Amino acid sequence: MDLTLNFYGEKVVLRTLSLNHPALKKGATDQDLKFFQSKLSKTNWAKLLLSLNAKADKMDLDDYGKFNLLKSFVLKYAQGSQYTKKALVYAALRMDGLDAKLAVKEDFFEIYIRMKQPTDYGYSFRNEGKTYFSTNPSGVHPVNIQILRDTFYKNAGLRPFSINLKILPKIGIKIKKRPIRFYRKGLKYASTIKYNEHYVDYLNDMPILQLGGHLLEVAIENYLFSELDDSMAQWTKTMNTSDRQNFLLHMVQQAFSYKADIDYRKHEKRNTVAQSIADDFIDCEDKAVLYLFLAERYTNTRGIMLYNKDKKHVNCALEMPQNTAGYNFKYKSKKYLIAEPAFEGYDLLETDFSEEDILRSQVFLRNK
């Protein structure tokens, strides 16, 4: 029989002769888990899970994308309780050499994973000197959970889950448009920017990583910017680099509405460029990431993000040529102009930060 799954707009098809699999019940012990895994290895489900891991690699999914593919498939086709379904997903992860744990306590049963990039939201615990994060961060996590000891799969050489945002996953394409409207020096500007809704959904289902330079390195579908590329070429054809940088700064300030995550979300959300284009509201770190992306795209200027813990604010700065007369500060012998994408009406160089605030800020930059 053919089994199909719509995974973010991409049709995944597998074939099997049987969907029978063993069951794992509430209150499972180490021995119950081993018995389940032994029985599973003799069924068609073991082959299905291996095939899904291979499919994920062909789709250029990172480890967490692979986890979401496995989870989606199991939820659709596996039978039985949450204990059985989570044990199936866990088995597939271990088959692929990923470092995961099963935690239990009475009705509680959850998969925890060791991650290469620590998350900034959700429950975690330490085990054998390593940190494991919940795959259900918004769920309830009781104290004194028991970690099941896995003696069926090899425990040596397990790798942590890696989230690789530099590679576009091979998933579906569903184009949405967002209008860009703003004013600059009394003139009204209007254009359109596009995003792939399936890719945005894929990113939204990823863990929330800590603030860092990885947000400046996320892959993006360049063809989605064709209309804005044409508009920028027309709008800025007589501008010098400094004027274009300020023009883009005012566009980000006005065309993308600001609202702090704490005002309407349960937790912080750190956006990539694609997510910021899709969201109705974005906050200071999202605007900083978006502005740095646009500044590099349209003025060939790189920059850094600055996070000031005392002020709870993220802004950014553009790298300037060494012969630049006006600049706010130096970092690693390079001159920088500060930018406030979240504060409407501010030009480059203008900020509420003092020189001490700037120097005390944590710096995030993309890898070379």
Q: What class, by secondary structure content?
A: alpha+beta
Strand count, sense and barrel status of the largest sheet are: 5 strands, antiparallel
Strand order of the largest sheet: 5-6-4-3-7
Q: What is the gyration radius calculated from CA atoms?
A: 24 Å
Strand content: 15-25%
Order of helices and strands: EEHHHHEEEEEEEHHHHHEEEEHE
The overall strand count is 14
Q: So how many helices?
A: 10
Distance linking N and C termini:
48 Å
Low-pLDDT runs: none
Portion in helices? 25-40%
> Based on CA inertia axes, which overall geometry fits?
elongated
Mean pLDDT: 94
What does this structure look like?
- With 368 residues, the chain is an alpha+beta fold.
- Helices cover 31% and strands 22% of the residues.
- The chain has 10 helices and 14 strands.
- A 5-stranded antiparallel sheet has the order 5-6-4-3-7. The protein has a 5-stranded antiparallel sheet with strand order 12-13-11-10-14. Strands 1-2 form a two-stranded antiparallel ribbon.
- Strand 12 and strand 13 form a beta hairpin.
- Helix 2 (44-58) packs across helix 4, helix 3 packs antiparallel against helix 4 and helix 7 (241-255) runs antiparallel to helix 9 (284-299).
- The chain starts with a strand and ends with a strand.
- The model has no long low-confidence stretch (mean pLDDT 94).
